[in-house]
Q: What sequence folds into this?
DNA sequence: GTTGAGCGTT
């Protein structure tokens, strides 16, 4: 991963974690290591990445061996321009296990009896929204899908609850969010009986009732048939005899395009 | 190829 060759978290008991924010999406641990290592002994650097694309989320965690060095790094590297972006270095306030952190050090003397959740400030991730939609649209038959959805669902729940005062829940539902919630809820119910057979892909999702090509071409075509003619599509007007390109764009062949309309209606409804 | 508030992995 983003470590120095290790698979999991090293000895974080005596390490001081620093949160590096506002880093570029291309910045890797190797790029941050020389910068932070100059101010102290860097034990490990971890950059949370996306499960799907693998890109960094824009922040990293640098663990120092000593607090004084970490403090120095915070003062020296905070506001430093890295890769053309001004990074923000500060002590981590939360640990990987939701433990409290004091000056970047994880306090393990936390009572486990108290099932305390992360009461951090509600944060919103607009990236997760489009990313989540992209996920389910591509394929959600992954093994880590459940894990991811659970985490995101929790996260989204927090945000939703917090922002409910600003926007009514109906707004979200009106945007087509209701479907997600419904599925998520049903999934939670199904979690009681974790049966592999039930988790198998339903037959309703196996076939692809949606035809992207005709629908995509049918939509703008129906809207303004003349537009396609005006558009200088010099990509390959004659080199691609695909079904998308109708030989006769005239409305006289509109009956031929009835297939597209049917598909569109089926998909839309 | 894009984006920019925030707190983390085997």
A:
């Amino acid at each position: 991963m983003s470590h120095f060759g290790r698979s999991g978290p090293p000895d974080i008991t005596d390490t001081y974690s620093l949160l590096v924010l506002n880093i570029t999406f291309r910045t890797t641990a190797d790029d941050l290591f020389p910068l932070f290592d100059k101010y102290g002994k860097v034990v490990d650097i971890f950059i949370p990445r996306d499960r799907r694309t693998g890109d960094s989320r824009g922040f990293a965690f640098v663990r120092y061996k000593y607090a004084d060095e970490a403090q120095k790094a915070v003062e020296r590297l905070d506001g430093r321009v890295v890769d053309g972006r001004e990074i923000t270095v500060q002590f981590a306030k939360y640990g990987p296990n939701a433990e409290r952190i004091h000056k970047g050090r994880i306090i393990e003397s936390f009572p486990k009896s108290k099932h305390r959740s992360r009461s951090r400030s509600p944060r919103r991730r607009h990236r997760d929204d489009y990313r989540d939609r992209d996920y389910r649209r591509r394929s959600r038959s992954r093994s880590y899908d459940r894990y991811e959805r659970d985490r995101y669902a929790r996260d989204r729940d927090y945000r939703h609850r917090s922002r409910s005062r600003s926007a009514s829940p109906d707004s979200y539902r009106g945007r087509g969010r209701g479907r997600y919630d419904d599925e998520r809820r049903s999934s939670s119910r199904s979690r009681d009986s974790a049966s592999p057979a039930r988790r198998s892909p339903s037959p309703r999702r196996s076939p692809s009732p949606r035809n992207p090509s005709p629908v995509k071409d049918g939509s703008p075509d129906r809207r303004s048939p003349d537009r396609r003619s005006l558009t200088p599509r010099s990509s390959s007007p004659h080199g691609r005899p695909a079904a998308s390109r109708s030989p006769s764009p005239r409305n006289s062949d509109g009956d031929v395009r009835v297939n597209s309309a049917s598909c569109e209606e089926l998909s839309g409804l």
